[in-house]
């Protein structure tokens, strides 16, 4: 008999929901017992704006617990992971992705097009603010933070102070709250964040049996899509600090699978909006992402924003709110 596997998780409703889901999948695939171990991160302990806490606050405590052998594996929202990776750790599985699109939750059941000029739309991500501004609907995009429930209350609660909020559909789906969505946003209007809707299941790279067992949860098409999206992000991070969106879809071509990657870099005020796409084979996912990023840079992605640290700087101003 082997000891139960310890799955480290944040205590938020969303983290518990996704960890519980992965725990069930691990039990089903391996027959092993799994227990949840709550890990409190700096991001949970502090109410300071995420932009001040910096990228990765929600991730580093889980990684520390993995490296300290306090837990055996962890589940992250893939889009919250820094592109760098962590020494000694390995993403053993990328389970099937939830719907990666963004969703609008608005008062009176409204869609984006039905919001009047001047309507206030809350979101934490500069990527979403930039794309809302690019729509030209005269919406007032407002930075907000907090958990999914408190964000929804900003638009639908008794003390609502906004007309709408934009959230990842995946988070609402995992919490069983898709009924509150008033419009699922077409990627033509609101291209999702790289890896949105996907999870990363991480363990120590030297835990060879566990690496093998967790791999049973891996979904190759999701891994290919996320690889392309994050290769684009990583390449742009070196050359540009603008809001970045990326979404890869896999489709059955005539005689083989094809990957269709879209990428966008948008200025925060929406006045500049560079969008490109590229296709290829899933095996070349990383190269497709890098090549599309290079094309975006050639078209001026690096010149979209002012100086580093200026008003549009993604990492410094908004950190891991994406
Ligand atoms: N930015 C925080 C965050 N990180 C992961 C999700 C849930 C969706 C996902 O797993 O991609 C959310 C909430 C949101 O963006 O609305």
Automatic annotation (TrEMBL):
Keyword Transferase (UniProt): yes
GO molecular function, one term: hydroxymethylbilane synthase activity
Annotated Polar residues bias: 313-322
Modified residues (S-(dipyrrolylmethanemethyl)cysteine): 240
Chain residue ranges for the region called Disordered: 303-322
Signal peptide feature range: none
Domain named Porphobilinogen deaminase N-terminal: residues: 5-207
Residue ranges of every copy of the Porphobilinogen deaminase C-terminal domain listed in the record: 225-297
Cofactor(s) named in the record: dipyrromethane
Organism domain of life: Bacteria
Cofactor binding note of this UniProt entry: Binds 1 dipyrromethane group covalently.
Listed EC numbers: 2.5.1.61
Known catalytic reactions: 4 porphobilinogen + H2O = hydroxymethylbilane + 4 NH4(+)
Keyword annotations of the record: Porphyrin biosynthesis, Transferase
Keyword NAD recorded: no
Coiled coil start-end: none
PANTHER family recorded: PORPHOBILINOGEN DEAMINASE (PTHR11557:SF0)
Subunit comment: Monomer.
Note: The porphobilinogen subunits are added to the dipyrromethane group.
Family listed: Belongs to the HMBS family.
Protein's job: Tetrapolymerization of the monopyrrole PBG into the hydroxymethylbilane pre-uroporphyrinogen in several discrete steps.
HAMAP family in alphabetical order: Porphobil_deam (MF_00260)
Protein name, per record: Porphobilinogen deaminase
Gene: hemC
């Amino acid at each position: 008999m082997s000891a139960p596997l310890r799955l480290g998780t944040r205590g938020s409703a969303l983290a518990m929901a996704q960890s519980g889901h992965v725990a069930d999948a691990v039990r089903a695939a391996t027959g092993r017992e799994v227990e949840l171990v709550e890990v409190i991160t700096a991001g949970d302990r502090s109410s300071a704006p995420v932009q001040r806490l910096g990228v990765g606050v929600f991730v580093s405590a889980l990684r520390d617990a993995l490296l300290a052998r306090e837990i055996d594996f962890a589940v992250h929202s893939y889009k919250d992971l820094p592109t760098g990776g962590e020494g000694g750790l390995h993403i053993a599985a990328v389970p099937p992705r939830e719907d990666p699109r963004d969703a609008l939750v608005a008062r009176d059941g409204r869609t984006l097009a039905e919001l009047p000029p001047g309507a206030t739309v809350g979101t934490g991500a500069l990527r979403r603010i930039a794309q809302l501004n690019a729509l030209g609907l005269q919406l007032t995009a407002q930075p907000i933070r907090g958990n999914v429930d408190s964000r929804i209350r900003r638009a639908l609660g008794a003390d609502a102070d906004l007309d709408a909020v934009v959230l990842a559909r995946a988070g609402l789906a995992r919490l069983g709250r898709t009924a509150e969505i008033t419009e699922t946003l077409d990627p033509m209007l609101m291209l999702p964040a790289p890896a949105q809707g996907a999870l990363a299941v991480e363990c120590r790279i030297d835990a060879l049996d566990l690496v093998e067992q967790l791999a049973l949860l891996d979904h190759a098409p999701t891994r290919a899509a996320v690889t392309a999206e994050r290769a684009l992000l990583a390449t742009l991070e070196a050359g540009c600090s603008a809001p970045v969106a990326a979404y890869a879809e896999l489709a059955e071509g005539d005689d083989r699978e094809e990957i269709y990657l879209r990428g966008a870099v948008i200025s925060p005020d929406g006045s500049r909006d560079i969008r490109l796409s590229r296709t290829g084979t899933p095996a070349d996912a990383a190269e497709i992402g890098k090549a599309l990023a290079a094309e975006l840079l050639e078209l001026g992605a690096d010149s979209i924003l002012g100086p580093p640290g200026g008003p549009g700087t993604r990492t410094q101003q908004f950190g891991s709110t994406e």
